[in-house]
Amino acid sequence: MSRLSRWVLLCVSILSMQSVWAADAPTAPSLVGVDKINSGDTAWMLTSTALVLMMSIPGLALFYGGMVRKKNVLSTLMQTFAITCLVTLLWWVIGYSWAFTPGSRYLGGASRAFFNGMTFMHDPDKKLSVSHLALTIPESVYAMFQMTFAIITPALIAGAFADRMKFSALLVFMAAWSLLVYAPIAHMVWESTGWLNLAGVLDYAGGTVVHINAGVAGLASCLVLGKRLGYGKEKMAPHNLTLTLIGASLLWVGWFGFNAGSAGAADGRAGMAMLATQMATAAAALSWAFAEWISRGKPSVLGIASGAVAGLVAITPASGFVGPTPAVIIGVAAGVLCFIAATSLKHVMGYDDSLDAFGVHGIGGIVGALLTGVFVSKEISGVDGSLKQVLIQLMGVATTVIYGFIASSVILIIIDKTIGLRVSEEQEREGLDISLHGESIE
Amino acid sequence: MKLITAIIKPFKLDDVRQAVSEVGVQGVTVTEVRGFGRQRGHTEIYRGAEYMVEFVPKTKIEIAVDDVLVDQVIEAIAKSAQTGKVGDGKIFVFDLAQVVRIRTGERDSGAL
C-alpha cells in the first residue's frame, strides 16, 4: 500500500469516526448508565447550585433591600423571596422544558413538562437521565442548577421598579416574563438547536441571557411605571448600606457558582472561569470607586459595591473564554461605563431606574458580551477573538434587547390595563411594607 | 430652680457629663435630636443623586438644678462642649415651677 493510500485511509477512518461520534452525541435528554456520571463534576455542580441560589436569597435581596428607603425594605426582600418560590414552580411546570429541550430555533419542546421523564432508576438497570448539555451530571442537578439562574434573572429586574409596583402585578409580571422572555432567550442562546447558539453567539454564564435580559426588562418597567413619587425632590437615600455591602459580598461569593459552575464540570475551565471572575470583580470595584473619587470627590461604599457587581456582570459572558489579563481589562471598562450609566445617563435620559438594574446589569452585560468577542481565547475555548465574533456578539445583544424590550413592555402594559401595575399614591407615600404587607421595621 | 437644656455635639456628651458631675449635678436626661443652626447641613451623594441633609444629628441634655448651681453648670457645659468650630450648640435656661421625686414624694429642692 502506498503512503498516499494509507494516508487517505487514515483520513477516511477519522472522518467516519467523527460522523459516528456526531450521530451518537445526544441532542436531547437521554438515559445513561450510572457509571457515566462523574462524581467530581456532580459534587461541584451541587455546590454551584446552592451558591447561585444564595446569590438571590439573601444576596440580591439584601443588596436591593439596603438601597431602598426604610418604609420599603420588607417589600423589597419579599419580592426576591416570592420570585424565588414562583419561578421554582414555573420551572417545574414548563420553564425547564421550554428552555433546555430541543424544539424550534426559538423555543424548546414540552417533553420535560413537570420534569416528566427526568429519572433516577437505581434498579434494575442502573440508569438515570442526563441533559444533552451536561453529560456527566444527573439531569436533576442540571435542571436545578439552571433553575437558580431562572430565579435570579427576574429578581434582578425588581431593582428598576423599586418602591412602586403592586405585589399582585409583580407576581403576574414575573410569571409571564419567566416563561415568555427568559425561557425563549435561554433556549436561543444556550440550547443546541437555538438560533443564536447556532449562529455562534458566546455567552458563557449568562451575560446576555441573564443580565442584558434583566436589565432591558428593568428599563421597560421603569419607563412603563414612571418615576417614584417625589423623585428628584425628596430624599431617597439608601436606608442601610451595611445590608447592601453584605448583599454585594454574598453575590460575589455566589457568583463563583454562577460562572465556574457554568463549566458544567469540575475542570480546568471552571478554575479559569473562577480566576477571571475574581480579577474582573476587583478591577471593576476599584475603577468605579476611583471614577467616583475623581469626579465627585469621595469614593463611596455604595460605589465600590456597585462596581464589584458591575464587574461580576461583565465577566459573566466572558468567564470561560478569557484569561486573567483580559478579565482585568473587562473589569476596568465595566466599572467606568456602569458608573457613567448609573450616575449620569439615567439623569440625562430622565428615567427612574431606581436601583440601576439597567445601568449595571444591562450596560455591564452589553460591555461584557461585546468584549467577549474581542478577548475570547482559542487556547481556552477553541475560538479566537475577531471583528466577526464581535459582530456575532452584537447580534446576540441586539436580539435580546429588541425582543426583551418589546415583550416586557407588552406584558407590563397588558397588566396595567387589566389589574393595574402601580400602587395608589397613598400606598406609595405610606410605604409598601405597611400598605402591601401589613408589617414594618423600627 | 432652673431647667438647663443644652444642644451639643454628640461626641462631646461624655466630656459634658463629667464636667457637670464635678460641679455637683445629680442627674442628666439625654436625647438624640436633629436640627439646624448656623452649621447648616451637609451633602450626601448616592450614585450621582445628591441629597442635602439639612438636619444635623445633635445631642440634647436636660438638667434640673438649684438656683445656686445655675452659673456653675452653665459654665461647665460651655467649657466642656466647646470646640471653637461652628455647630458647638446652645444652652437654654428656663424657670422650673415644680419638681417631684416619684419614689418618695419629695418636692422641689429636696427632689433635685
Describe this structure in words.
The complex is a heterodimer of chains A (442) and B (112). Chain A has one domain: Ammonium transporter fold (Orthogonal Bundle), CATH 1.10.3430. Chain A contains 16 helices and 3 strands. Chain A has helices spanning 3-24, 39-67, 73-100, 139-157, 167-190, 195-198, 207-225, 241-260, 268-296, 301-315, 324-349, 357-375, 378-381, 387-418, 425-430, 432-437, and strands at 30-33, 120-121, 127-130. In chain A, strands 1-3-2 form a 3-stranded antiparallel beta sheet. In chain A, helix 2 runs antiparallel to helix 3 (73-100), helix 2 packs parallel to helix 4 and helix 11 packs antiparallel against helix 12. The longest helix of chain A has 32 residues, at 387-418. Chain B contains 2 helices and 6 strands. In chain B, the strands form 2 sheets. Chain B has a 4-stranded antiparallel beta sheet, covered by helices on one side. Chain B has a two-stranded antiparallel sheet with strand order 3-4. In chain B, helix 1 runs antiparallel to helix 2 (70-80). The longest helix of chain B is centred in the C-terminal third of the chain and has 11 residues, at 70-80. Chain B is elongated.
